């Protein structure tokens, strides 16, 4: 089961570095929810997710991302990661909750992040 989530994260990193609409769309079910921070309203549906992603996109190649799938229970995977930004020098600790459908697309994605280095 861990491999399904590793594959999804690898596709996420590819989309992160390409900002290509088709790469982003391939990650999410049509009715997916993407929570960008606690207590905020999620982006609802693939079109809103793509639009939100592209409004807040990082420049391709500006990040180094390391991760580990730390838990899987049924369709839910938990990923711990670290993101280092080359341009700003900032680093973030990430915790992701990813719920996948049978086709390997996220139906729910929740990200928590904390600044660990400025």
Q: What count of helical segments does DSSP give?
A: 3
Residue-averaged pLDDT: 96
- Spans of at least 5 consecutive residues whose pLDDT stays below 50 are none
β content, as a range? 35-45%
How would you spell out the order of helices and strands?
Answer: HHEEHEEEE
Helix/strand/pairing category: alpha+beta
Short descriptors:
alpha+beta, 6 strands, six-stranded mixed beta sheet, 118 residues, single chain, 3 helices
Overview of the molecule:
It is a single chain. Helices cover 28% and strands 45% of the residues. It has helices spanning 2-18, 21-25, 45-55; strands at residues 28-35, 43-44, 63-73, 76-85, 91-100, 106-117. With 118 residues, the chain is of the alpha+beta class. A hairpin with a 7-residue loop joins β1 (28-35) and β2 (43-44). The protein has a six-stranded mixed beta sheet with strand order 2-1-6-5-4-3, with helices on one face. The chain has three helices and six strands, in the order ααββαββββ.
Please give the structural blueprint.
Layout: H1 2-18, H2 21-25, E1 28-35, E2 43-44, H3 45-55, E3 63-73, E4 76-85, E5 91-100, E6 106-117
Parallel strand pairs: 1-6
Antiparallel strand pairs: 1-2, 3-4, 4-5, 5-6
């Amino acid at each position: 089961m861990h491999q399904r989530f590793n594959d999804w994260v690898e596709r996420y990193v590819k989309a992160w570095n390409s900002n290509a609409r088709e790469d982003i769309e391939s990650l999410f079910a049509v009715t997916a929810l993407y929570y960008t921070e606690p207590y905020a309203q999620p982006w609802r549906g693939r079109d809103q997710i793509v639009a939100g992603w592209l409004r807040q996109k990082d420049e391709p190649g500006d990040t180094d991302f390391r991760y580990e799938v730390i838990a899987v229970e049924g369709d839910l995977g938990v990923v711990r990661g670290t993101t280092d930004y080359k341009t700003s020098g900032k680093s973030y600790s990430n915790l992701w909750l990813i719920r996948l459908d049978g086709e390997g697309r996220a139906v729910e994605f929740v990200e928590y992040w904390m600044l660990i280095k400025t």
